[in-house]
Amino acid sequence: MYWKYALKRILYGYAMFAFLVLLFAVIFNAQMEKTQNAQIREQLNAERLSLTQKRMAPEELTRLMQEREQRLRDQYHLDEPIISRILSATWDTLTLRLGTSTNIRSQAGERDVWTIVSEKIPRTVLLFTVAIAFDIVLGVWLGLKTARRAGKLLDRTTSVTTMVVYGLPTWWLAMILIMLLVYAIPIFPSGGLHSVPPPQGFGYTLDLLYHLALPVLTLVVLGFWGRAYLTRNLVLGTLQEDFIMSARARGLSEPRILYGHTLRAAAPPIVTMSLLSLLGSFGGALIFEGIFSWPGMGNLYWIAVQQNDIPVLMGNLAITTALYVGGLVLLDLIYGFLDPRIKVSGKA
Fold this sequence. Notes:
Blueprint: H1 2-53, H2 58-75, H3 82-94, H4 113-148, H5 153-166, H6 170-184, H7 202-238, H8 242-249, H9 254-281, H10 286-291, H11 297-306, H12 310-338, H13 340-345
C-alpha cells in the first residue's frame, strides 16, 4: 500500500537527517566548548569590572564570581560528559532550538539563529530558482533541437561547447563576466542585493531584478549546456522506442511526436535532475555568493566561519540538510505515487 511506502520513506529520511545532525554535533563539539568558555570568561570579566567599580569586598566578589561561573557552566552543560553534550546539541537542533549566535546578528539586531538563517533562505532560493528555471527552459529547448538534428552542425556544436563550458569553474566565469559587464562595459552592478540606499515602491523590485541579472546569467551560461546535452541523449533514446515508431506510422507530425510523446516519456529523469539541482542549491554556493556579495546561505556560512560563530554554522548546516533530505523524500513520494513499480521494488 502507498501509505506504508510513504511512511517508510519519511521515517528513513528523518533517520538520515538525525544521523547527519549527530555527525555535525560531533564535529563542532570541541570548537563549541572553546567558544562557550571564551564567552563565559568575557561575561565574567565584564561583570567583575562592574562590581569592582561598586567597591565590593574582594572575598564577596570572588565568591559571587565563582557562583556565577558555575551557573553559566551549568547553563551551557560544560560540566557534563562529552556524550551528553553531543546528544543534547543534537536534540536541540532536531527540535529547532538553534540557540543564539556568538557574533552575527539579523537585520533587526537579533541574535536568534533561526531568525538569522531564515532571512537568508529566501534570497538563496530566489537566486538559484530563477537560474534553474531559465536553465531548464533553454536546456530542454536546445536538447530537443539537437535531438531532431542528430549529427548535424547544431548537434556537433552543442556537444563541443558542452565539453568546454561544463568544465569551467563557476567562480572563474563569474569574475570574467564581472570584468566585462561591470567594469569594461558598465551594464550591471558588481554585486549586492540592492542599491544603497534601496529605492522605494515598485523601484525596489526593479532594483532587485537588476542586481539579480548578472548572477543568474552566470549560472545559466554554465548550466544549460549540460542540461541540453542530457536532454538530447534522453530524447534520442526515446525516439527509438516502439510507441514512437507507432506514432509515426499513424501519420502524426514530428513536432507533435517530439513534444507530445517523446518529451513526456523522457520527462522523469529531466525533472529529477532539475529538482536535485534546486535542492543542492539551498545551501548556497559559498564562493559564488561571495563573489557577487549576495547575502544568502553560502555567504552566511562564510561569515560564520570567519567569525567562528558555531551556533550559526550548526543552524545553517542543519536547515540546509533538512531541506535537502526533505526534498529527496518528497521526490521519492512523487515517484512512488506515479510509478507503482517503485513501491514494489522498495518492498513497501
